[in-house]
Specification:
- With 424 residues, this protein is an all-alpha fold.
- Helix content is 68%, strand content 1%.
- It folds into 3 domains: 17-61; 69-168, no CATH class; 200-420, MetI-like fold, CATH 1.10.3720.10.
- It is built from 21 helices and 2 strands.
- Strands 1-2 form a two-stranded antiparallel ribbon.
- A hairpin with a 5-residue loop joins strand 1 and strand 2 (190-192).
Length: 424
């Protein structure tokens, strides 16, 4: 009976204004959740606008192929009904629709877009579309098939029409195939590019190898620096930390240019080695415009990104741990390997991921000091974005690079565990 009375009293508890206590607590929790959501809303908005939307746009552009259907809007629906398996050219209606699309496309100045898009798949298409658009305005009546073939014999080749039909879809896999050195052949089958035209797979492998090498070098150089910063007195450590952060206050272009002056054949390092008679004047080292220049310059630029996570973790490791190991009979090396080093693994993981991900997408420094053998995949992405204007291929390359980074991230999480990574 006492228990029942207590329960009944607890259920009827109210606040000063008569609201049931349970309802009042629920409202307070709801207000706290809304307040917390409003505090992080700007961050969510920033991530959506400046991170998720650009990635979504990149993924869409990697398969988007609307230009052919929009410009050749009369031809594409008729071409979709063409049976290419019979080995015959499309009907006269298709040729007539193409002539009309050429006339309108020339007036709207959009036909060149189709030519450029088709030229990504087969060279010579740009000139074909431009010359045909220029001469098609004189075609007033049929037969349109004979008129177009007279303008250019390629319109009498069934392979041209097969290519046009395949690339008239609103979505395409051509960009992704090109990004991994593959393509559609004339019969629509996926085949590898000839050996002398394979570029991107080699660049992806080179990018991963050089990024891994740069990460290892940054770790080898950054670990002792971080250890020194963590063990020195605060006054000296703060002074040295300023030197570590000093590169952030210097323009990236200035730092890269400085390495060009240092590493070139007539540069400071080669002159110094010649002056010491370590090498002959005719045997100066080639350290620029190759992979060596890329590794040296990027290691210097990315080294602070390794030092800072390591230092923040080492600073929080109690000195008593190593002293305790020494007092129990461990040698300095054993105490370091068995006690100190395992405690720095979270900082190593954070620094390694940070350096590797930045290195894998770098393109400014490799473009200036890398030459042919030091170029990374980021340089080709930048080229297609700004020079060749093949945004679809650039987006596909970026998507493949993103997939590689995510795969390596998941592999790291599986082997090491992302929970073991710490920035401090």
């Amino acid at each position: 009976m006492a228990t029942s009375g207590t329960t009944s009293t607890a259920q009827t508890l109210t606040t000063a204004d008569g609201t049931p206590l349970k309802v009042s607590l629920s409202r307070a929790e709801r207000r706290n959740r809304i307040r917390a959501l409003l505090l992080v809303a700007p961050l969510f908005l920033f991530i959506i606008v400046f991170f998720l939307v650009p990635i979504g746009d990149m993924l869409f552009r990697s398969v988007e192929n609307r230009v052919v259907g929009e410009v050749l809007h009369r031809t594409v629906p008729l071409l979709a009904m063409w049976d290419e398996a019979n080995g015959e050219l499309p009907s006269e209606d298709v040729f007539r629709a193409l002539v009309e699309d050429f006339k309108q496309g020339r007036e709207d100045r959009t036909i060149g877009k189709v030519g450029r898009r088709m030229n990504y798949e087969k060279s010579g298409m740009t000139s074909l579309f431009r010359s045909t658009a220029r001469k098609a305005r004189r075609i007033e009546q049929g037969p349109f098939k004979e008129a177009l073939i007279k303008i250019n014999k390629k319109w009498g080749d069934i392979k041209t029409w097969q290519l046009l039909k395949r690339e008239s879809s609103a979505l395409t896999l051509s960009y992704y195939l090109a990004s991994v050195d593959m393509r559609f052949d004339d019969n629509g089958k996926v085949v590898r590019q000839p050996d002398d035209e394979q570029i991107y797979i080699k660049l992806f492998i080179r990018t991963l190898n050089l990024s891994a090498l740069i990460t290892v070098l940054c770790l080898a150089l950054g670990y002792p620096i971080s250890y020194l910063l963590a063990t020195l007195p605060a006054r000296t450590s703060n002074l040295l930390m300023i030197l570590v952060l000093l590169p952030f206050w210097t323009s990236l272009l200035v730092r890269t240019t400085a390495w060009i002056a240092l590493l070139q054949k007539e540069g400071v390092i080669n002159d110094f080695l010649v002056a010491l008679r370590l090498i002959g004047d005719e045997n100066r080292l080639a350290m620029i415009h190759n992979a060596t220049g890329t590794v040296v310059a990027m290691t210097h630029i990315l080294l602070p990104f390794m030092v800072l996570p390591l230092y923040s973790v080492m600073k929080n490791i109690p000195e008593s741990h190593v002293r305790a190991a020494r007092s129990l009979g461990a040698t300095p090396f054993t105490a370091f390997m068995r006690v100190y080093l395992p405690n720095t693994v979270p900082g190593i993981g954070a620094g390694a991921i940070l350096v590797f991900i930045i290195a894998i997408g770098y393109y400014i420094t490799p473009a200036l000091v890398g030459g042919v053998s030091g170029t990374l995949i980021g340089n080709l992405i930048a080229y297609h974005m700004s020079t060749s204007l093949n945004w679809g291929l650039a987006a596909a390359l970026g998507s493949v690079l993103l997939a590689l980074v995510l795969a390596l991230y998941l592999l790291y999480d599986k082997v090491v565990g992302i929970d073991n990574m710490k920035m401090g």
